[in-house]
Each structure stands twice: as structure tokens, then as C-alpha cells.
Amino acid sequence: MSELFNTISDYINFFIENLGVWGPLLGCLLIVVESILPVLPIFVFITLNFLAFGNIVGFLISWLCTVLGCFISFMIFRDGVQTWFEKRLRNKSAVDKIMNVIDKLKFEHLVLLLTVPFVPAFAINIAAGLSKMKLKKYVTALFIGKAFFVYFWGFVGTGLLESLTNPSSLIKVLIIIIIAYVLSRLISKKVKN
Predict the structure, then answer these.
(1) What is the pLDDT averaged over residues 2-22?
(2) 183: buried, middle or exposed (CB in 10 Å: 19+, 13-18, 0-12)?
């Protein structure tokens, strides 16, 4: 079993070394794209940036790319879809109730939603873009919330890779993921009330 872990660890190191700067730059681009189209595993790209650039620079690059991607997604829906949405769907009672909740979402709740790793960020970006939420409130919450989000995934990703050579560290990573998941469920329930 340890041979398998060592092989995977060697492959990841080989991949990072051979792509050089292009690997993490591709990771940055994919982080931006993932924030708009959530079909990619963002934690993989954050982890690659942490491994390639180190914890501080990798964190900064991943954080700024995540913020940029979320902001682009927000602006697409704010500028491109909001007017159509207001005319066609906002007046429906169920949609209007949901949008009123989003419009009145407290700043600290927005930060928590953007921080929690298991809450779909793209849905928050879309809802905020379609709502009457002030741009300053969204951007401020985005910068704060995504800092914790990126740090979490960077820590978990590098911890998982460390567990390939030291399987006992996997327990620490699993505990952190379980705690984050439980907190995300509790926060989701609290925000809905």
C-alpha cells in the first residue's frame, strides 16, 4: 500500500516540476473558470498552487483568482441577466420570497456562506447578481469569505498529498473535512431561518 502512495506522490511531483510555471498558471485560469462554471474540482487547483508556489504565494494567487472568478460570475448575472429576471421571474411569489431573503441577507451571513467549502459558490454568485444586493457588500464579503475558503482547501489538499507518504496525517484531514461539513450544514440551517 505504501508503494502506491509513493507512486502517486512521485507522479504529482513530476507533473508539477515538468509543467513549471505553466501548471499553476493553468490552475489559476481553471480556478477562475470553475467559479463561473462549477464543473471542475477547485481544491485540486488550489492545492497545485500551494505546492508550486508555497503556502503564502500559492494562497494569494488562489485567493485572488477565486475572487476574480466569483466577481465575473456575479457581474454576468448583474449586468446580463438581472433586468430580464426582474421582468419575467421576480414577480412570481415563490421566486420573490427567495429573492427578498437574499436581498436582506446580513453581511456576516453572506461571509459565512462564501467561506464554507461545501456551499456551492456559483449559486451564491448567481443569487447575489440577480438580487438588489449592493456591490460593495458583495465584494467585501467575497474578499473575506474566500480567504478562509482558499486556506481551507489549500490545507486539506496539501494534507491529503502528505498523507500519501504519511498515511496517519489522513486522519487529521478527514477530521477537518467532517468539521467543515457539519459547520456548513449548521450555517445553512441558521441562514435559512
Answers:
(1) 62
(2) middle
d(CA 110, CA 127): 11
Q: Which three cell numbers stand for residue 91?
A: 414577480
| pLDDT value for 128 | 87
What is the count of structural domains for the chain?
A: 1
1 pLDDT band (50/70/90 cuts)?
very low
Q: Are 112 and 187 in contact (CB under 8 A)?
A: yes
C-alpha cell belonging to residue 143: 474578499
Residue 81 DSSP symbol: I
Contacts of 181 (CB under 8 A, 6+ apart): 118
Which tens digits make up the pLDDT trace of 42-55? 887 788 778 777 88
CA distance 173 to 19: 27
Model confidence pLDDT, tens digit, residues 67-85: 999 999 999 888 877 667 6
116: phi > 0 → left, psi -120 to 50 → alpha, else beta; which? beta
Helices (H), ranges, 104-168: 107-115, 121-130, 135-165
Q: Which residues contact 135 (CB under 8 A, 6 or more apart)?
A: 78
Counting beta carbons within 10 angstroms of the beta carbon of residue 103, is it exposed (0 to 12), middle (13 to 18) or buried (19 or more)? middle
CB atoms within 10 A of CB 122: 16
- Where in the sequence is the domain holding 112, given as residue range(s)? 2-192
DSSP symbol at 63: H
